[in-house]
Amino acid sequence: MPEAAQKQVEYIDIKDLRPLPAKKKLPRHPPVIVFNPSKCTGCSTCEMVCSNRNVDKVAPASSSIKVLRNEEEGKNFAALCLHCREPLCLEACPTRAIDKDDEGIVRIRRLFCVECGICTLACPESAPMVEPVTGKIRKCDLCEGDPLCVKHCPEGALHFYRGKAVGWIKYLRWPVQLLSFLLLVVVLVGTFCYFTAGVVSLPCPTGTLQNIAATKHIVFASAGAALVLIVLTILLGRAFCGWVCPFGFFLDLVGSVVPKFGLPKFLKSRMIKYGILGGAIGGAAGLGFQPFCTVCPIGSICRSYGVSGVLQGAELAIVPAIASLELGQRRSWCRYFCPVGAVLALAAKIGLIKIVIGAKQCKKFSCMQCADICPMGIIDREALREGTAPKIPMDECILCMRCVDTCPYSSAKIRFRWQKTIPGEVKAWTYS
Amino acid sequence: MKMKSAKEIRDIMTASGAHSCVECGRCVAVCPMAEMYPNFSIEMSPRGVIKKVMMGEDILADEYIWYCTECNAGTDVCPAGVSDRDLIKGLRQLAIQQGTVKDIRTCTCCGELFAALHVMDFITERLKDEPKGYLEMCPACRRKVYLLRNA
């Protein structure tokens, strides 16, 4: 740009008034209105109060909350803005009129809004409402932190609060993982594996299975000791993988540092680990020794320290080779390949506890922090996007409790298998 | 067909006040389509559409009326009080009646013609990483599905 023109631009101060959308830090206490459908009577008081604030008269058409009624099934529901973590309306707005502030409230800046209605089309539940005649967009701004609809709801079906994550579980998990890493790798060298099973060791169930297949006779003492871990897994889920496994800790450390590039599709099958397990047991029966245990990364890392476990050539390469799988996805070894995890997964399938996500206060598609943070990637994004509670396969869950830790609305919980905490599955409405 | 719809087009022009257009170009200056579509041109802008109608071209078969987002920006700034939104809406309605419609998205649930295809393409492009299943449905049906799933 020529100097004169530069000067002129500075003089008249031509700038884009609209700030570009930038990645902001998540609000620590995101505001949220929780709607309880069982209490709602469909009286539309919220609509009236809201429109009174919007246009200074009672005109439900210009309110930013909408009461939906289904007379057939006698259901009422209020559609209102959920103030998403990553708002789709913000991304779609052509004039960059939608803004999310530090408190987590998504607002329309009226100065830039041209009322094109693209936010309504981009929102999964069409929360920005279009006024029928004038075409004005009405969107909830939480009445600047003190919503009128909540105040005036006669049945108390709306409830406003600021979310708060549990937050302390990670301060418990990391020390436990570090401690068990030191204990299994440095102090009790070679424990957990099959051949250096000392007095205190819990023999690896996979190793024991291979041992039985290889030697063709059962040593009841070692098999019984191996069952301890299985029983613990039935009681607690795969907590071993998330809290104790030394290689899992190593992977967690590596995974928090390296960037992710994704894995090729043929590797992304959770059945591979059962295949490896079957192959290892079959191979043990045929070969007469434990084939997987020679390359097992958990075993290698356990045997790597101290005099007794001098690493052999192949073993030395196995830990970094498998740790490099972290470049694909977090814990990709645990997800798809680990046969030790496969045995525990079979046990956890009939386990007693489960993780439930998607209680009434769950914000589903507007939040999805649990799906982002889950190291095993088992939280169904599609279900969350559709607004239903995702089913968590407990055989894949390593019970690291990251989801419980991060959920700001405390809607991720640990429950017993027989407890019912989420509404039953509703058949999706389809055109017929 | 052109002769048949001439009267209706004139009615729409009168109703939206497009006859009083002074061609100042303010609606083009504020039009959000300029930021939405890289191929934005004078033909696509409300001013161009009005000009075409004035010249008696076959506007209903024109693809450029299917880009508009039906926003209020042009109406807000117009010094002559032309409602661009009503003009485009009326023209689209007429095109649907005449059967010359090409670029409009219908709701997969109720069959409502709820948005122009180019607008939906723009939204789909903007929301690259997101799933696009719900974009096939009109806002009313989205809320209906939402109600049935959650209530």
Describe this structure in words.
The complex is a heterodimer of chains A (432) and B (151). Chain A has helices at 3-12, 45-55, 88-92, 118-122, 148-152, 169-187, 205-215, 220-236, 239-244, 246-255, 272-287, 297-303, 313-323, 332-337, 339-349, 369-373, 381-386, 402-406, and strands at residues 31-35, 66-70, 75-79, 98-100, 106-108, 129-130, 137-138, 158-162, 353-357, 412-416. By secondary structure, chain A is mostly helical. Chain A folds into three domains: 18-162, Alpha-Beta Plaits (2-Layer Sandwich), CATH 3.30.70.20; 189-349, no CATH class; 353-416, Alpha-Beta Plaits (2-Layer Sandwich), CATH 3.30.70.20. A two-stranded antiparallel sheet of chain A has the order 1-8. The longest helix of chain A is centred in the middle third of the chain and has 19 residues, at 169-187. Chain A is elongated. Chain B is mostly helical. Chain B has helices spanning 6-16, 26-30, 33-36, 46-54, 73-77, 84-98, 117-126, 139-150; strands at residues 104-106, 113-116. Chain B is globular, with a radius of gyration of 17 Å. In chain B, helix 1 (6-16) packs antiparallel against helix 6. Chain B folds into two domains: 6-98, Alpha-helical ferredoxin (Fumarate Reductase Iron-sulfur Protein, Chain B, domain 2, Orthogonal Bundle), CATH 1.10.1060.10; 104-150, no CATH class. In chain B, 47% of the residues lie in helices and 5% in strands. Classes of the chains: A mainly alpha (432), B mainly alpha (151). Chain A binds chain B through residues 37, 66, 68, 70, 73, 75-77, 79, 88, 91-92, 94-95, 114-118, 120-122, 124-126, 130, 134-136, 382, 385-388, 426, 428-429, 431, and chain B through 30, 32-33, 35-36, 69-73, 76, 85, 108-110, 114-115, 119-120, 122-123, 126-127, 130-131, 133-135, 139-140, 142-151.
